[in-house]
Q: What sequence folds into this?
């Protein structure tokens, strides 16, 4: 019996000795799982996220522009809105968006809840009104029952809708990337080329803006510090929110998590490849011209930031009733 207890103690101590420990001196931290999640709200929010009936056409959902099968984006320079309108800006990924300092490229929404209501009422996106969206939900008894179960209220308001969507979006984190595994102590998780790329990423100054859990998303920075950024896009960054010329071309630094999946890059979607994006960022932000070999090493490192993608059962949306408006995707 004593030998058995001793053996078990040895095994336990050995496992503790090799347990991964996060590196405290790195500018990037491993992604942590979401905390304090309301599961009932998440399940409701998941349905709403995928439900196109929250749009005027009955055809566009949150997932249309933030496709969870495609890195939380739509992989086109600017998104397609109601009546095939071309959006003004590249759709940022919804993955790890809970780690952002604010939402949208210009930070006009303070949090995920504030963001969730914007596209529904935006005439260039889902083109509905909050009132009409609520009318649709109230015409579907299964939604009325689920809202009552989750929130304990008889009447659905836009607050409950956006709270539920935001709660679902909080779960869309992507931990366990190979880089996270390396941060947590698995030194075999990265190749020499990838480690060289990370060293270049740090030594060149990229980490001044791309740091923290999301490797970005926690500050606003001017696009074109050393050289001006040339674009035909109308977006002016924070200046569109503050009205201050000093904020012109100040955009939220994008997360680099899953960046190999979230092409094209920048607020205007002008860079089609990571190689092109690294080259432009080096010149415009750092005043540095990366060699082809240096660029390839940084790209190799960036690809290690792809984590476990959201994996869940596709929600089955409650059926419409006779009172629910039918889709009109071709209406003029």
A:
């Amino acid at each position: 019996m004593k030998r058995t207890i001793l053996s078990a103690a040895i095994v336990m101590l050995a496992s503790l000795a090799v347990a991964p420990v996060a590196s405290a001196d790195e500018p990037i931290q491993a992604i942590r799982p979401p905390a304090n999640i309301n599961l009932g709200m998440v399940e409701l929010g998941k349905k709403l996220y995928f439900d196109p009936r929250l749009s005027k056409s009955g055809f566009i959902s949150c997932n249309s522009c933030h496709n969870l099968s495609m890195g939380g984006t739509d992989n086109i320079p600017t998104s397609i809105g109601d009546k095939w309108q071309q959006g003004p800006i590249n759709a940022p990924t919804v993955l790890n968006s809970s780690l952002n300092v604010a939402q949208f490229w210009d930070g006009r929404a303070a949090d995920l809840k504030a963001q969730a209501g914007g596209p529904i009422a935006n005439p260039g996106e889902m083109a509905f009104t909050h009132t009409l969206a609520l009318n649709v939900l109230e015409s579907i008894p299964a939604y009325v029952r689920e809202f009552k179960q989750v929130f304990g209220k008889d009447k659905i308001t836009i607050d409950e809708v956006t709270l539920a969507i935001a709660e679902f979006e909080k779960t869309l984190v992507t931990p366990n990337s190979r880089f996270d595994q390396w941060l947590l102590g698995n030194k075999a998780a990265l190749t020499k080329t990838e480690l060289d790329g990370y060293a270049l990423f740090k030594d060149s100054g990229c980490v001044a803006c791309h740091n923290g859990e999301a490797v970005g998303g926690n500050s606003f920075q001017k696009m074109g510090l050393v050289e001006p950024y040339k674009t035909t896009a109308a977006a002016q960054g924070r200046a569109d929110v503050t009205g201050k010329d000093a904020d012109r071309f100040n955009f939220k630094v994008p997360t680099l998590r899953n960046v190999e999946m979230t092409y094209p890059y920048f607020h205007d979607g002008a860079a089609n490849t990571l190689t092109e994006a690294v080259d432009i960022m080096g010149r415009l932000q750092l005043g540095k011209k990366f060699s082809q070999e240096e660029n390839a090493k940084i790209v190799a490192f960036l690809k290690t930031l792809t984590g476990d993608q959201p994996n869940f059962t596709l929600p089955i949306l409650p059926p419409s009733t006779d009172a629910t408006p039918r889709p009109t995707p071709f209406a003029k």
